[in-house]
Amino acid sequence: MAQRNTIFRQLLQLVDRHVFNRVERERFKSGREYRSLNRWQQFTAMMLAQLAGNSSLRDIAQQFEGQAKRLYHLGLRAVKRSTLADANAGRPAEFFEAIFQEQYARCAALAPRKKFHSKHKLYSFDSSLVDLCLSMFPWAKFRRTKGGIKLHTLLDHDGYLPAFVHITTAKVADVTIARLLKLPAGSIIVMDRGYVDFSLFSQLHTENIQFVTRMKKGMRYKVVERRDGNRAQGVTSDQTIQFTGAKAKNCATSLRRVGYRDAETGQHYFFLTNAFELPAKCIADIYKERWQVELFFKWIKQNLKIKTFLGTSKNAVMTQIWIALITLLMIAYYKFKAKIGQSLSQILKLARLNLFVRKNLLELVDPISYVQSEPVGKQLCINFH
């Protein structure tokens, strides 16, 4: 990347334009060219809103107008508020979902591997509620006076990246979306007690997916086998059980029940899993890793614009969320490619404060690495494509 480029332009280069055009051409061709605002310009405008923290479509239009000379060299023209609103409301948000999937694949190829007790790939699955005003978003009715949407997210622990995101209204049950997951055989998924469902357990077991979750109180079962627990590691019990009761017929296999007492809090947990070959302490450690998906939801709500929306239609809301997630993956891709230690929050903050500064991005976010990697008098050029 040339040093004369703005930070914003360098960030745009982190999204492969060839892939962007191919997805549009092969899967979302409308049959006509957009005259005043094509999809790339729409994406650029909405990504600028994420990076700059714009609070309205009018702010985006004014920022494009104020930075007209710098944006002109990117092939971008002034954006009209009404035109951008129409594009967000009318053009399928599924296009940006497809770009999100392409960007995840690029990030996953560079992400640092999570070194855990098991060689299997680890995922966490959970959902997070985003409250909406029912009078402005009537399509998202949740309760009598409340609206909301859910972000159902599968977190890949290699790099802590969102591997799968499904956006629904808040009234959709979490287990319903969990049944849609297609995971690599042999992988491990960790979920909280909201996903305790015998049919889901059987589905995952049949697909050769290992799962770890917490046991609900009051579940009826019988002990088939007992194993010695390592109390020095906090393991209080390790059993093979079979569930009893009317719904137990939906769980066709025996499961493992592991008791664990946290040495720091003194709290006693009971975990359910179909992973019999892993050490009992490893089961507890895997469930502890589930906290990363909670941290992910906290991060995107604090750093991206997904709690207040620039349009009220369902499609506009979905478009904004997908572009927010692409922005996250874009920053993660840079972090992995440049191999820098700064957090995503640090990179995003520095980029946000210097969007239209003409400076090398690496020099901005990691000056020491930039100096060490730079021959005297030359610029560092990182090829991201």
Question: What would you say this structure looks like, in words?
Answer:
With 385 residues, this protein is an alpha+beta fold. The protein is 41% helix and 18% strand. It is built from 15 helices and ten strands. Strands 1, 2, 3, 4, 5, 6, 7, 8, 9 and 10 form a ten-stranded mixed beta sheet that branches. Mean pLDDT is 89; it is low at 376-385.
Helix content: 40-55%
- How widely separated are the two ends? 11 Å
Outline: globular
Overall radius of gyration: 24 Å
Number of helices: 15
- Which runs of at least 5 residues are low in confidence (pLDDT < 50)? 376-385
Mean pLDDT: 89
Q: Key terms for this structure?
A:
385 residues, alpha+beta
Strand-helix topology:
Layout: H1 7-12, H2 17-27, H3 39-52, H4 57-66, H5 68-72, H6 81-90, H7 94-110, E1 122-132, E2 141-143, E3 146-156, E4 161-169, H8 174-178, E5 188-190, H9 198-206, E6 210-214, E7 221-227, E8 235-243, E9 255-261, E10 268-273, H10 280-289, H11 291-303, H12 314-338, H13 344-353, H14 361-365, H15 367-373
Parallel strand pairs: 1-5, 5-6
Antiparallel strand pairs: 1-3, 2-3, 3-4, 6-10, 7-8, 8-9, 9-10
Helix pairs in contact: 2-7, 3-4, 3-12, 4-6, 6-12, 7-12
